[in-house]
Amino acid sequence: MELDLTQIIWTLSGHDQHGNAIAVPCRLPGDNATALMEAGIIPDPYVGTNEKLVQWIAERDWIFTGKFSLPEEPAEKLLYLNFDSIDTCAEILINGKKAGESDNMFIRQRIWASPFLRRGENSVELHIRSAVKVGEERAKRYPFDLGQNSNNSVPYLQYVRKVQSHGGWDWGICLPVSGVYGGLYLREVRTARIEKVYTEQKFSGDTVELTVSVELEAAAAGLVPLRIEFNGELHEETVEVLSGRQLRHFRFIVRQPELWNPAGYGGQFLYPLTVSSDSEQIVKKIGFRHVELLTESDGATSESFCFRINGNRIFCKGANWVPPDAMPGRMPPERLCTLVKAARDANMNMLRVWGGGNYESELFYELCDEFGLMVWQDCMFSCVKYPDMPEFLESVEHELEYQVRRLSTHPCMTAWCGDNEIFMCFGQMPVSPERFQGAVLYDRVNRFVVQCLKKYNRELPVRRSSPDNGETRFHENVFEQDRGDMHYWSVWHGDEPFSAYYGIRPRFCSEFGFQSFPSIRTLRKCISPEMENISSPEMENHQKNGIGNAKIYATFARYFRMPSAFEDVVYLSQVQQAMAIRMAVEFWRSLKPWCMGTLYWQMNDVWPVASWSSVDYNGEWKILNYEAKRFFAPLLIAARVEPDGKYYISVIRDGLNAVSGTVRILFHSFAKRTVKPVFERTVTVDPESAFNQEFSPSDEPAEAGFYELRFEGEETVRREFFAAEYKRCELPEPEISVEIRPINTGFEIELTASDYAFCVFAEQRAALCNWSDNAVTLYPYERIRLTVTPDRPMSVEEFRTGLKLSHIQSTFSPRPETARKNRLLLTEVAETGTETETISPAGCEKRTAS
Ligand code: BMA
After folding, report:
1. Reported confidence tier of residue 475, pLDDT bands at 50, 70, 90
2. How far apart are CA 315 and CA 634, in angstroms?
3. Alpha helices of 563-617 — where are they, by DSSP H?
4. How high is the pLDDT of residue 817?
5. Is residue 518 packed enough to be buried (19+ CB in 10 Å), middle (13-18) or exposed (0-12)?
6. 198 C-alpha to center of ligand 1: Å?
7. Which residues contact 73 (CB under 8 A, 6 or more apart)?
8. SS3 label, residue 583
9. I need a labelling partner for 645 at 20 to 30 A (CA). Which of 132, 138, 758, 849 fits?
10. Tally of CA atoms within 13 A in the half-sphere of 780 that contains its CB
11. By three-state DSSP, how is residue 229 classified?
């Protein structure tokens, strides 16, 4: 028997800010804020400045009550209650009696429930205390002052094992929710439950030994038949259990296994593994891959930092992952799929699950397994010191044992890391007794974390922190370029121009980023029309980084002509974000094999907000995600002007095969209307290194035009490179025509411009769309076809009305509304391909095609 308790309606009860009792229906998995919003007690915290109105929720204790009926007498059965995650400090009551408690949302809770249950109606109650208050109480008892993380609006949250960014972050709403996440059920077993199934792989030559460990938890002595099926082999055993835990190991030898490889390095073969007892069955997918992190001396003071998977040195390309929703109850699984797919579609091969968030759901790791996305997994400690009291460390050990073993079967798992930026923070503090004391205290916690990681995992490399430069170094880590991983933030948090990236030669850059605003469609869901101004109260509430808006504007002034219309500000913020990250990634990839990884900050958002993400909260791709698809492509051509004024061209190849072809650089002059070759060379680039060559630029002034970079061979790539800031260029004023044709899955649109148009970004305001490509360059009269799949059926008429095009020059005009008028032509073409009508987009006047 199994009762899925996510199918019943729960009740959330507590008191509002005035002390009035509340009882509302609640869906689980879910959280209190979502339930209160759905019941109309609070407004949507993501809208306007509502965040400020809902802060009282976190000050209160809450009760989640579920009622269900059992047709038979449960005392004769063996039933257990499972909660994948309870957020956070809770007492669990069954029929009014305390049956268990929870103090760490990163640990699954299971309770033998039969003694508490009865025939007929039963109730389960979770009494969840305010995490804000629990943190405060614990801080009072702890003899040292651990300080507060400046990103976090809630003091003392580090005393509670809960998602740390629930307390707010420099991209996060402050909303410390309570709730229950993941699986929630009552299940009957005969003698014991299958508590854990975890695996370990050992390679020797072309043979791999897979150890499958099965942990049973028995309520009483008895016999449990176990069946383990893997790769056509069956192991059966009847295990004699006593009350409590029993562990059994099963070994499988696989000769010449099919391998799981990171995306771009071969397939992702997955073998099913089935573990069954007389009452339960667990199915996992196992992928074989041999993971090494090479940290070898490769110079007088330098050391490599390179993941080698199945013998292939992998250049890691990806981004940092934060929790996908600050209100977990609002998060449908489809949104997670879309997001992880967006990483894969952008040619990424690694995601770093960042330490201020959560160990993600099974679905996340399953998707990464399937897409060939390696996972760098932080432990959930970030940016602040943590207490070393024994009960805290004991809970951390349970957490790590649970999480490490849970994730051990996923081939995407590539590295474990102790925390995010905690050692780095010490390096940035002035030398003082506080820094000394803090470092000693934190070192106790971190050593313990690392010991646990090594105790429960022998397969994957373990880093103590990110960034980290090795066992003997504690303070140089921000700018250390010789070894370890680096977080390079001087372009955003400092005041460096984008070209500063060219002065940094990291071995592996695991964080660097630049902010932009989310899409207009996302903003219009949370900002009222009269607040469409960057410094309005609503917009400012959706910007959590103190310097954020000023920085975005300062960067406009540095590289662009100042945009005035709100929509142009939003668009251009995304253009410059993509430009920054593109410059960094192109340069760092060109340093291969010195540099072997770039993970930008950040992939996704927890709510609609101005942030460093490349996909916004609603799943809209920012320009950066389209750019990432190009700058992370396995074949890349890129150019740069280094700080000494020299011009370089690079061709970078990833994957397993070399590529040969001709590199051509052409200078397109805007005013003269000429195209002149400046460089040509036939090259072969093998995947272990990059081709880099200085070249002489055109003798025309840099601002007179741009460089077309071409690689022509079995594969052809074209990119554009500006050696001058856009603001200094007299960009042509193109007239852009758009033809819209309905196709099976949506629409095909064809773009043509009467002159060069840069970063042409097509957005659909009426639906979330999947675009085959976007933010493209149009050369005069070149036809570019894009396919668009909206998330719901749309008529051509509706699609046309919601379509918006922007390009860089369209933001240059002092009067953007009039400038854009008449420059965009939208032509609707019937399925037969004949032109039926020529129309202007929303806001533009009707005109006929010439
Ligand atoms: C990084 C992260 C986060 C932060 C981001 C942007 O260093 O680790 O703490 O959100 O910077 O400031």
Report:
1. low
2. 10
3. 566-590
4. 52
5. buried
6. 32
7. 118, 119
8. helix
9. 758
10. 12
11. strand
Beta-carbon contacts of residue 13 (< 8 Å; ≥ 6 apart): 21, 22, 23, 24, 62, 63, 65
Residue closest to 521 by CA, chosen among 604, 608, 614, 579: 608
| Contacting residues for 482 by C-beta, under 8 A, at least 6 apart | 299, 301, 302, 303, 469, 507
List the one residue out of 275, 293, 294 whose CA is nearest residue 283: 275
790, β-bridge pairs? 769
427: tokens are 């390096």
Phi, psi of 504 (to 5 degrees): -120, 130
d(CA 591, CA 585): 10
pTM of the complete model: 0.95
pLDDT of residue 833: 39
Residue matched to tokens 């103090």 = 103
Show the ligand 1 pocket: residues with CB < 6 angstroms: 151, 169-171, 383, 420-421, 487, 511, 601
pLDDT digits (tens, 9 = 90+) for 149-188: 888 999 999 999 999 999 999 999 999 999 999 999 999 9
The DSSP code sequence of 376-441 is EEE-S-BSS-----HHHHHHHHHHHHHHHHHHTT-TTEEEEES-BSHHHHHHHSPSSHHHHHHHHH
Distances (CA, A) of 428 to 354, 435, 781, 807: 20, 10, 53, 40
Determine whether 33 is exposed, middle or buried from the number of CB atoms within 10 Å of its CB (0-12, 13-18, 19+).
Answer: buried
Residue 89 CA to ligand 1 centre (angstroms): 27
Residues 696, 676: contact at Cβ < 8 Å? no
Q: Which residue, by CA, sits nearest to atom 4 of ligand 1? A: 170
Give the pLDDT band of residue 426 (cuts 50, 70, 90): confident
Q: What are the structure tokens assigned to 149, written together?
A: 């993380």
Angle between helices 390-407 and 433-456 (to 10 degrees): 40
Q: What is the pLDDT of residues 781-822, one digit of tens each?
A: 999 999 999 999 999 999 999 999 999 999 997 655 544 544
